[in-house]
Each structure stands twice: as C-alpha cells, then as structure tokens.
Amino acid sequence: TGQQQVKTNTSLTFDSSTGFLGAAGMVISANTASTALRITQIGAGNALVVEDEANPDSTPFVINATGDVLIGHTASLITLGVSPSLQVVGTRLSTGTLNAAVYAADATSAGYVYLSKSRDAIGVYTTALSSGDQLGGILFLGSDGTALIRGAAIRAEVDGAVSTNDMPGRLVFLTTADAATAPTERMRIDSAGSVFINDTSNVNNTSGLTVNQLATDNQAFTIKSS
After folding, report:
1. Mind listing the pLDDT tens digit for each residue in 167-187?
2. CB neighbours of 110 closer than 8 A, spacing ≥ 6?
3. Edge-to-edge order in the sheet of strand 86-88
4. What is the percent of the chain with per-residue pLDDT over 70, rounded to a whole number?
5. Taking phi first (over 0 means left), then psi (-120 to 50 degrees means alpha), and beta for anything else, what does residue 160 get?
6. Selection from 101, 71, 76, 103 nearest residue 89 by Cα
7. Residues 153-162: contacts with CB within 8 Å, 24+ apart?
8. Strands (DSSP E) along 9-85, which ranges?
9. Is the predicted pLDDT of residue 96 greater than 60, yes or no?
C-alpha cells in the first residue's frame, strides 16, 4: 500500500518458488487513471527484457531504451541504415515470421497489415499527398557474405491528384539485375488498371497491357503452351 522507493543501482527480485507470490508469479493490478506501470531507463541498457531461465535467452522479448520492440534478439539489427521500430528474428521459420489472423464466420473479416503515409505530424492529416509519393512498400533482402542487400521490392505510390476521399494508387514491382546494386522497376499496375512491363506509360492507349521490348530481347511478348 502507498508508495515505496527502491534505492538506485540495486536489483529487485521476485521468486515465485518461495510461495510469496503464489503460482501466478507477479501480478500488477492498478486502479488508476494514469499509467499502470512505467519503466524509465536512464542508463544505456534495454528498458525491458522478458526471457526464460537461459541467460542469455535465445528468443527474448525486448523493449530497448528508444522504445523499439525486439523479438528474438536483444539488440536492434540495423538494415540499410535503418533501426527498426519492430524487429522479429529467429533461427527457424516459426520465429522469423509475422502472423495476422482473424477467426470469424463472415466474408469481410481478415488479417491486414496497414502501411500508411502522412506529410504532417503524428495523428494529423491536413496536408494532402502528392502524385508520386510512396504509400508503403516491402523490401526483400539477402546476405551477400558481408551485409544484407536488396534483391527485390514492391511499392505502393500515389498515382495522380489527391482530393478528399480520393487516393489514386499504383503498385510498382522492382527487381535487382545481376551485378546491380539496387532494384529497378520492372512492372507497374496503375490506378486505371493498366499493366506496364518494362515501361511506365503508354501515350497511345488509356488502358490495357503495355510491353516494352528491351534492346537485348528477341521478342517483346511470348505465350507458351505446355
């Protein structure tokens, strides 16, 4: 009851095996309008580490001092100069994946991943995006023996003028050519539903399929039957 102060530079340990806390381990029950639990890290270490009895644990849950959530590793793995806000790593398929599942007996419920963009401060949407702005994307990377290198990407971009309740979009598919250092656009689906391969526009057609024959190719379009 009341407020208690624990000296700094000390550790506070709860051992459920003594029976003091019971089988539940540690339970925090707060009746308050403010924060129920606050952890303030004033040092250089992580703010929160959840692990089993193995130390160091191979699959911990970590919140570091900057608020990043790290699953499966205690440190942020910087990729392409970016420190992720959410990181999931592991040594097998089940520990390196993300799952968004919905169990519902209807036709509209499903698991979604939301990727969004605003030009304003967090939670503010007063500035409309411009044509060509990126809405989100997925990067596929692989190790070249030294670092993780981009091999392919999928991007969503604004594909025209934006107005209230009107956000025209396009999907852009990119792959990295042999001996190249970054992905190049190979195909796009624009806001009108047109598909462009090795091209980004067709001034002669307003919709349909455009295939741009590369100089080194013998045929621009091939249909095979098996």
Report:
1. 999 999 999 999 998 999 999
2. 102
3. 48-50, 61-63, 69-71, 86-88
4. 81
5. left
6. 71
7. 153/183, 156/115, 157/132, 157/133, 158/129, 158/130, 158/131, 158/132, 158/133, 159/131, 159/190, 159/191, 160/131, 160/191, 161/131, 162/128, 162/129, 162/130, 162/131
8. 48-50, 61-63, 69-71
9. yes
